[in-house]
């Protein structure tokens, strides 16, 4: 990937980059017990995750670099969330450990599969992953602000199903691709 250095400083990449900057802030807030501050900064990070892809499409700045940057930002954000939630709400995390483990696994396993097969990080950005991220983000607030656990549990299952699809894509694809909408799109394309 040979992209001129200046083209990397685009609005979509800056929005994605915010999540890298937010991660230490999230860790600091959680370590010092600032649950509300953590939730506010996390909401801003989630918003930038929503807006970066939209901005890339609207401005015609969809790039391989941006897709990979977004995937790395996702993994860093979700692992940071797991650590922070353990610090802020250890009793809730302990009670929901199985579902928290599913969500962490849904981030790590597709990345590991990509590294094993391709030697690099995959950045499929499937519709299932987008749904899983939205479900996890929304239900995280419900769970940690005192709501019922069942929406979070459903979101964890959606996350693991999305991860299974990503790993299946890694098995099927001969080389890594970015912005693959679903396994069905790939299967339809290979049947032609």
Keywords:
8 helices; globular
Plain-language structure description:
It is a single chain. With 192 residues, the chain is mainly alpha-helical. It is 78% helix and 0% strand. It contains eight helices and no strands. It has helices at 11-31, 35-59, 64-88, 90-95, 97-118, 127-144, 150-172, 183-191. Helix 1 (11-31) runs parallel beside helix 3, helix 5 (97-118) runs parallel beside helix 7 and helix 6 (127-144) packs antiparallel against helix 7. The longest helix has 25 residues, at 35-59. The radius of gyration is 17 Å and the shape is globular. The two termini are 28 Å apart. The model has no long low-confidence stretch (mean pLDDT 92).
Please summarize what this structure is.
With 192 residues, the chain is mainly alpha-helical. It is built from 8 helices and no strands.
Low-confidence stretches: none
β-strand percent reads under 5%
Number of strands: 0
Rg over C-alpha atoms, rounded to the nearest angstrom:
17 Å
How far is the first residue's CA from the last residue's CA? 28 Å
Structural class: mainly alpha
What's the shape? globular
> How many H/I helical runs?
8
Helix content: over 70%
Largest sheet: none
Tell me, rounded to a whole number, the average pLDDT: 92
Q: What letter string, H or E per element, gives the SSE order?
A: HHHHHHHH
Oligomer: single chain
């Amino acid at each position: 990937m040979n992209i001129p250095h200046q083209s990397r400083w685009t609005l979509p990449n800056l929005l994605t980059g915010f999540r890298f900057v937010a991660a230490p802030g999230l860790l600091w807030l959680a370590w010092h017990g600032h649950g509300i501050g953590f939730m506010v900064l996390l909401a801003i990070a989630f918003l930038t995750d929503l807006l970066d892809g939209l901005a890339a499409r609207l401005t015609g700045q969809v790039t391989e670099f941006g897709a990979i940057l977004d995937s790395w930002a996702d993994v860093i954000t979700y692992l940071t969330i797991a650590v922070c939630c353990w610090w802020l709400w250890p009793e809730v995390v302990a009670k929901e450990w199985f579902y928290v483990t599913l969500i962490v696994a849904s981030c790590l396993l597709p990345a590991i599969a990509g590294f094993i097969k391709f030697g690099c990080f995959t950045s499929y950005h499937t519709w299932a992953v987008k749904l899983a991220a939205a479900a996890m983000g929304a239900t995280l607030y419900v769970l940690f602000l005192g709501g019922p656990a069942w929406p979070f549990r459903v979101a964890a299952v959606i996350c693991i199903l999305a991860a299974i699809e990503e790993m299946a894509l890694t098995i099927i694809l001969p080389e890594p691709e970015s912005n693959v909408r679903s396994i069905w799109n790939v299967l339809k394309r290979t049947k032609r």
